Amino acid sequence: MDILKESARGFVYYHLVDEAGNMAGIESIDSGYTLMEPENGMMVHANHYETEAYKKTDLAYTYIPDSFGRADRLRELISSAAGSVTPEMMMEFLADHKNRPDSICSHVDESKPPEMASMSLSSLVMAPKERKMFVAFGPPCENTYQEYVL
C-alpha cells in the first residue's frame, strides 16, 4: 500500500481487495492522492474523480460525461443484490446496456465525433478469496470471460 500511495500520481485509480474482503481505493492527481473506503459495503469507480477536491479539475464532464451514469447504474445493480453478489453477477452487471449509448458496457457511439468515441476494451472481475480473476477482452456482452487462477 505504501508503494502505491507513493507512486500514485496523475490520473490514476487503484482498486484493492484482499482475501478477507477488505477494500480500498487510491485516487490520485499530479500533486497527491486520496485513500478511498467502501460506501455501503461497496466500491464503484468509473472514469471520473469521486474525490470532492479533485472534481474541480476533472475533464470527464467534458470528454466522458457518460462515466457518471455508468457508475450510478453499477451502484444500483450492486445495491439490488447487496450481500449476495457473485462473480457471475458482476459479469452480467458489467455487460449491462441500460441507458445505451451511455451504458456500463460501452460501444462506439457513431453520433459522437471520432475523437470522442470510446468503448469497453476489457472487463475484469476478481474473486480474491478464490484467488481468481476473470477477464473479457473487449466488450463483455460480446466476449466470454476467461478464468485465471493464482
Write the layout of secondary structure elements.
Elements: H1 2-7, E1 12-17, E2 23-29, E3 32-36, H2 60-63, H3 66-80, H4 87-94, E4 122-127, E5 132-137, E6 146-149
Antiparallel strand pairs: 1-2, 2-3, 4-5, 5-6
Summarize the structure.
The protein is α+β, with helices and mostly antiparallel strands.
Give average pLDDT, whole number: 91
**Strand order in the largest sheet:** 1-2-3
Series of H and E elements:
HEEEHHHEEE
Number of helices: 4
Can you tell me the residue ranges where pLDDT is under 50 for at least 5 consecutive residues? Answer: none
Task: Describe the protein.
This protein is α+β, with helices and mostly antiparallel strands. It is 22% helix and 23% strand. The chain is built from four helices and six strands; from the N terminus they run αβββαααβββ. The strands form two sheets. A three-stranded antiparallel sheet has the order 1-2-3, with no helix packed on it. A three-stranded antiparallel sheet has the order 4-5-6, covered by helices on one side. Strand 1 (12-17) and strand 2 form a beta hairpin. The longest helix is centred in the middle third of the chain and has 15 residues, at 66-80.
Features:
150 residues, alpha+beta, three-stranded antiparallel sheet, 22% helix, 23% strand
